[in-house]
């Protein structure tokens, strides 16, 4: 039963299906050795709007910007508990979260969002950031420009 529920959630995350309402707080959760789990009123450039998405942060997905489980095959390791940054509460914590997968680069994020660790600890509150999706940043989950030296491509 657990796997069936997990598979249904995974499907809803990546295909936008389901009649889920927008959350009270936009959240990007940094999963241990895995993807970015996004819950918000998500608008990903060139994709249908959705309420949930699992976004690749290992660089190996064949379905970018979405996670396809490739992180397990390639042995991607990245903490789900990065250090918190000092940030102030955001007045409006919900609404459109625009995600732009830049060609051969990071995920641009615009809109109110709380970035949380895998355990739920708040890492940052922001309205604009760039998140690593090549798997090479030394400042994960944030982009530090490592995609250029690594030769990351989104093809």
List the helices and strands and how they pair.
Elements: H1 2-15, E1 27-30, E2 36-44, E3 50-55, H2 70-74, E4 96-101, E5 107-116, E6 122-131, H3 146-150
Parallel strand pairs: 1-5, 2-4
Antiparallel strand pairs: 1-2, 2-3, 4-5, 5-6
Q: How many structural domains can be distinguished in the coordinates?
A: 1
CA-atom Rg in angstroms: 15 Å
Largest sheet properties: 6 strands, mixed
On the 0 to 100 scale, the average pLDDT is 90
Tally of separate helices: 3
CA-CA gap between termini: 36 Å
Shape: globular
Order of helices and strands: HEEEHEEEH
- Count of DSSP strands: 6
Going by helix content, strand content and strand pairing, the class is alpha/beta
Helix content: 10-25%
pLDDT under 50 segments (min length 5)? Answer: 1-13
How much of the polypeptide forms β-strand, as a percent range? 25-35%
What does the model show?
- The chain has one domain.
- Strands 1, 2, 3, 4, 5 and 6 form a six-stranded mixed beta sheet that branches.
- The model is unreliable at 1-13 (pLDDT under 50).
- It has helices at 2-15, 70-74, 146-150, and strands at residues 27-30, 36-44, 50-55, 96-101, 107-116, 122-131.
- It is globular and about 40 Å long.
- The protein is built from three helices and six strands; from the N terminus they run αβββαβββα.
- The longest helix has 14 residues, at 2-15.
- It is an alpha/beta fold and 155 residues long.
């Amino acid at each position: 039963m657990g796997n069936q529920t997990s598979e249904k959630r995974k499907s809803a995350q990546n295909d936008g299906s389901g009649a889920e309402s927008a959350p009270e707080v936009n959240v990007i959760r940094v999963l241990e050795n895995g993807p970015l789990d996004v819950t918000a009123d998500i608008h990903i450039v060139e994709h249908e709007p959705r309420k949930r998405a699992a976004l690749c942060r290992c660089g190996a997905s064949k379905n970018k910007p979405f996670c396809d489980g490739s992180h397990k095959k390639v042995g991607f390791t990245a903490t789900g508990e990065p250090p918190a940054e000092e940030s102030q509460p955001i007045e409006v914590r919900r609404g459109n979260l625009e995600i732009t997968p830049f060609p051969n680069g990071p995920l641009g994020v615009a809109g109110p969002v709380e970035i949380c660790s895998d355990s739920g600890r708040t890492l940052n509150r922001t309205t604009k950031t760039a998140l690593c999706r090549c798997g090479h940043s030394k400042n994960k989950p944030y982009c530090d420009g490592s995609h250029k030296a690594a030769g990351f491509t989104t093809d």
